Amino acid sequence: MNRYSVFGLMRGALGGQKHWQPAWRDPEPRASYDVVIIGGGGHGLATAYYLAKVHGVRNVAVLEKSWIGGGNTGRNTTLVRSNYRLAPLHNLFDFGLKMWEHLSDELNYNVMFSPRGAMFLGHSDADMTMLAQRGDALRCDGIDAELLTRDEVAKVEPLIDMSRTARFPIEGALMQPRGGTARHDAVAWGYARAADVLGVDIIQKCEVTGFVRDGADGSGAVVGVETTRGRIGAGRVGICVAGHSGQVAGLAGLKLPIESQTLQAVVTEGVKPMVNSSVMSQSLHCYVSQSDKGGIVMGGDPDNWPSYARRGQPTVIETAIAQTIAIMPALSRLRMLRTWSGVTDMSFDGAPIIGPTPVRNLFINGGWCYGGFKATPASGWTYAHTLATGAAHPLNAPFALDRFVRGATVDETGVGPMPNHR
Ligand SMILES: Cc1cc2nc3c(=O)[nH]c(=O)nc-3n(C[C@H](O)[C@H](O)[C@H](O)COP(=O)(O)OP(=O)(O)OC[C@H]3O[C@@H](n4cnc5c(N)ncnc54)[C@H](O)[C@@H]3O)c2cc1C
Asked: Which domain holds residue 213?
């Protein structure tokens, strides 16, 4: 495999760009693997990479029913941050944020991580009190959080309507300077390429349609998967299919505390830099940032009813756009380029699920709601630990599936799936 470097680019320029190799192989499935991962999104690919790199488990396959990164990984709005209020959440996400800072070097692939700051706006005294409490909780755990005054907000984002007659007045904000954005599909491609180099088989167009259960010892342990490309044996199987978690777990007879809902986003035509950070408003249920190509990316709440359709209701995305324009009126002059949606796995406490299932050899990683992209490195690292050792990693221990039975939910919002997990 060629190492990507500036010298390679220069050599390519001189040699007619003929030396490039495919970034990963296109292997036929083998009869069996030590670990089979279902789902070739960022989380599944990162898990495979860390299994091979950190744990030396290289006899691994990632099975993807369509193309890698074509699920929520390639559909999200790329916000990366770690400023959750509860310790189990911010510790996991901050472990990931530190990994983002070196990910391009680690993978030898530019994931375009851009720490331009992630800012939650406060529109009232009550908002500011909540943001201050969150900031205190973060700083107690060594995570960056700065409470901004109105003037400081205006300095970061001059296009926000700071007038006292604004529809939603701005009282200040909570800023995480290390937060920002990353290029979503580059993350899938970077992990895929790096995992492939270590011997992981990435098998696209291979849908898992069932589980092979061991009848011999009566335990019903999973010993393989049925796929559209035949039966594949497995020592351990890791589900990593985001919005399809309920469907795939259902193939093993499991019912998850997850509801699949459509989440939409929108991007405008490309313009010169006008939004400097990632701006979010939890009160208004909307957020905005600018992509490196110049498009203004906006999003809001999910459609709030169960669906596997990757097609959202216009009224939902219209509301998010209207709220964003109320904050930054200049955006109203831009033309919309496209909207799209993905199927998100909304868990009932709004926190992810990572760990074993009641079925032996079967593990689950899901329930990331609409905030799992930022967790990709941390999710892969901790899930790989669990798949390799069979035990929880200290960072994913609070997110075991059985927390819902034990009454140990990690409920940051206190009211179930809410717009805090973007
Ligand atoms: C519009 C939108 C905006 C978002 N914005 C953000 C954001 O700004 N920041 C953030 O942190 N998060 C965001 N998210 C959430 C984030 O995208 C997801 O949590 C994250 O990408 C999930 O990654 P994944 O690898 O688990 O899932 P995916 O990328 O969806 O990968 C799962 C894969 O499993 C495959 N699969 C499904 N069933 C099977 C089967 N039976 N057999 C084989 N393969 C199967 C699918 O084809 C898919 O490729 C957003 C999501 C959406 C939809």
From this structure: 31-109+183-257+349-406
Q: Which residues contact 306 (CB under 8 A, 6 or more apart)?
A: 259, 260, 261
180 touches ligand 1 (CB under 6 Å): no
CA separation for the pair 115, 78 (Å, rounded): 12
> In whole angstroms, what separates CA 231 from the centre of its chain?
29
CATH number for 226: 3.50.50.60
Q: pLDDT tens for residues 296-346?
A: 999 999 998 999 999 999 999 999 999 999 999 999 999 999 999 999 999
Average confidence (pLDDT) per 10 residues, the chain, 422 residues:
87 87 96 98 98 98 98 97 96 98 98 97 97 97 98 98 95 98 97 98 98 84 98 98 98 97 97 98 95 96 92 94 97 96 96 97 97 98 98 98 96 57 46
Whether ligand 1 lies within 6 angstroms of the CB of 134 is answered as no
61: in domain = yes
Find out whether the beta carbon of 234 lies less than 6 Å from any atom of ligand 1: no
Which of ligand 1's atoms lies nearest the C-alpha of 366? 26
Ligand 1 center–CA 242 separation, angstroms: 5
CA distance 20 to 3: 10
CB 223 within 8 A of CB 213: yes
Classify strands 230-239 and 362-366 as parallel, antiparallel or unpaired.
parallel
Nearest to 22 by CA among 41, 2, 37: 2
Q: Which residues pair with 258 in a beta bridge?
A: 347
What are 285's two structure tokens? 């249920």
Residue 12 forms part of a structural domain: no
Whole-angstrom Cα distance, residue 25 to residue 416? 42
Q: Which of 391, 387, 337 is nearest to 364 (CA)?
A: 387
pLDDT for the residue 1: 74
- Predicted TM-score (pTM) of the model is 0.96
For a pLDDT cut of 90, what percent of the chain falls above it?
A: 91
| Domain-located, residue 309 | no
Total count of domains within the chain: 1
d(CA 34, CA 57): 8
| In-domain check, residue 242 | yes
Phi, psi of 257 (to 5 degrees): -80, 55
What is the rounded CA–CA span in Å between residue 50 and residue 36?
A: 14
Tell me the CA–centroid distance for residue 65 and ligand 1, in Å: 13
Tokens of 399: 């997110």
- Alpha-carbon distance of 46 to 374, in angstroms, equals 12
Nearest-CA neighbor of 284 among 327, 314, 333, 318?
327
